[in-house]
Amino acid sequence: MENLISLVNKIQRACTALGDHGDESTMPTLWDSLPAIAVVGGQSSGKSSVLESIVGKDFLPRGSGIVTRRPLVLQLLKIDDGREYAEFMHLPRKRFTDFAAVRQEISDETDRETGRTKAISSVPIHLSIFSPNVVNLTLVDLPGLTKVVIDGQPESIVQDIENMVRAFIEKPNCIILAISPANQDLATSDAIKISREVDPKGERTFGVLTKIDLMDKGTNAVDILEGRSYKLQFPWIGVVNRSQADINKSVDMIAARRREREYFANSLEYKHLATKMGSEHLGRVLSKHLERVIKSRIPGLQSLISKTIGELEAEQSRLGKPIAADTGGKLYVIMEISRTFDQIFKEHLDGVRSGGDKVYSVFDNQFPAALKRLQFDKHLTMENIRKLITEADGYQPHLIAPEQGYRRLIESSLISIKGPAEDAVDAVHAILKELAQMSISETSELKQYPTLRVEVGNAAFESLDRMKEESKRATMQLVDMECGYLTVEFFRKLPQDIEKGGNPTHSLFDRYNDSYLRRVGINVLNYVNMVCSGLRTAIPKSIVYCQVREAKRSLLDHFFAELGSKEKGQLSRMLDEDPAVMQRRTSIARRLELYRSAQAEIDAVAWSK
Q1: Which residue, 64, 38, 60, 52, is CA-closest to 105?
Q2: pTM of the full structure
Q3: Using an 8 Å Cβ cutoff, are 210 and 45 in contact?
Q4: Is 85 within 8 Å of 55 (Cβ atoms)?
Q5: What is the pLDDT of residues 373-412, one digit of tens each?
C-alpha cells in the first residue's frame, strides 16, 4: 500500500512543476482530484509543533505573525536505514541534512514568490523528507487562520488566508486535519469553525487537540477526545507538543515523543486513551486513512484522466501544430496550409462541398434568361431594317442582294449579346470569390494565423480577378468572331428573291417593298437565333475553361511563386499567430504531459495490485 502514497506524491510534484496547483484556471486541473490531507489551524494553535512531532524534526519557520504564507506540501517517505535528509522540488539536486537549513530555505523560497511584503501565495512549496522515523504520509500545511493584521501586511490578509484555506479544504478529495488548542473554548476554534462550514457532517475531518498539558488545573479534555463535546466521524487525537521553553532549549524530538507517551500513559484522566493519543499514533492513523482513500479513488482518477486526455488532445488538434523556427519549416507550413485551402476550394467546385452548383445555375438559368430578354425581333422593325439597308448601300445601291445591309443588321443584333455574356462572366466570378471566402473560413489552420489568412485570401482574389479579365476577353472574342465572319452556308440555303431588288425608278427610301424587307428581317432573325444558340453553348464553355478550370488548376500558383523569394522575417510575419493561442497550445502540451505521466503511474500501480 505504501506505493499508493508515493504515487500521489509523484503526481502532486508533477502538478506543481507544470503549474497545476488547483488555483483558478481555464485548464483542467488534476491537483483537485488527488486525495490530500490539509492541516488547518489558527495562529498559536500548535499547528507547526504537530507537524514537527509527526516528522520528528525541528524544520518549520517560527516567529510572530503569519509565518506560513504559502502552502507547504510535506511528503514523508520512510526509508529502511541511513541518514535523514530533505529535498525541495525547486532544488532537485540538493540534499539537506541540516534541518535548520531546511527552515531557512522555506523562508527564502516563500520570499522569492511573495516578496518581502508578507503577502500570501497559493503556489505550493514541495518538501520531501526521507527518514526511518516517519510513516509514508503527505500533508499540506496551510497558512494559519488569523483575526489580526500586523504591520507590513495588506489589510485583506485575514480574508485572503481564509479564502485560500477554504479553497483547499472545500474540495471533496481533501482530508481536513483540524488543529485546535485544548486550553481554549472549542466553540471559538478557527479550525473547527471553517471545517464545519465545508464538512458539516465531519465525514472527512480529523480533530487534533493540542496543549492538553496546558489546560487549567481541575479541567480536562476527555469529553472532547471521546467525541461527546463535538462529534466527528473519526476519533479525536490528543497530542502534547514541546513547550516554548523546550524549543528554546532545542529539546530533541525523540525525547519529546517519549515525554508525550509518558504523559498520556501516566495521566489519570487520559491513560485509558493512551494508545490512541500522541503524534506517533496520529501519523500512523493518517497514513492508513490516506492509503484507503487513495485506493478508493484510483478508478475515478483513471476515468477522469482518460477523459481529460481525450479533451486535451482534441483541443491540441484544433489549435494546430506550433510554428517551425527555421525558414524551410516556415515555408513548408505556409505551403501545406495553402494547399489545404486550395483543396477545400476544389471540393466546393467538384460538389464534395456545397456551392459549385451555383456556377451551373448561371449557365442554365441566368444566362439563357438574359439572352431571351434581348428580343431581337423588336430590334428588326421594318423601319430599322430599311434604314440600315439603305445606309449600308451608300451612293451605290446593291445589285442583287443587300449584303452590307445584312451584315449591319446581324452585327447590330449580335453586339447586344455581349451584355449578357459579360454578366455571366461577372456572376461566375462572384461565385468563385464567394467559394474562396467560404474555403478560407473552413480552413481551420488559417484561423491560427490571421496575416496568412489575409495573404492567401488576397492572392486567391487577385488570381480570380486575372482569370475574370481573361475570361471576359475570350468571351467577347467569341461574339466578335460571329460578327466578323458570317456563316455563308446559311444564306446559300435561302430561297432566291425573284424580284432581284426594288424598282430603280423609285426614290431611295421606297426602293424595297414591305414584303421584301420583311423577308430580310426574318432571315436576319433566323441567323441571329442560330448564332445565339451556338453562343449559348460556347460562352459557358469559355467561362468554365478560363475561370473555373483555371481556378482549380492554378488559383495560388502566383502566390507560391512569390513565396520562394521571401525571407525568413517575411515568412515569420505571415505566421504571426495570436499570442494567446501560442500560450494556450503550450499549456495544453504541458498539461497533456502531466496527465499522460499520471496515467502511466496509476496504471502501473493498478496492475501491480
Answers
A1: 60
A2: 0.60
A3: yes
A4: no
A5: 887 666 676 667 666 666 665 555 554 556 676 777 888 8
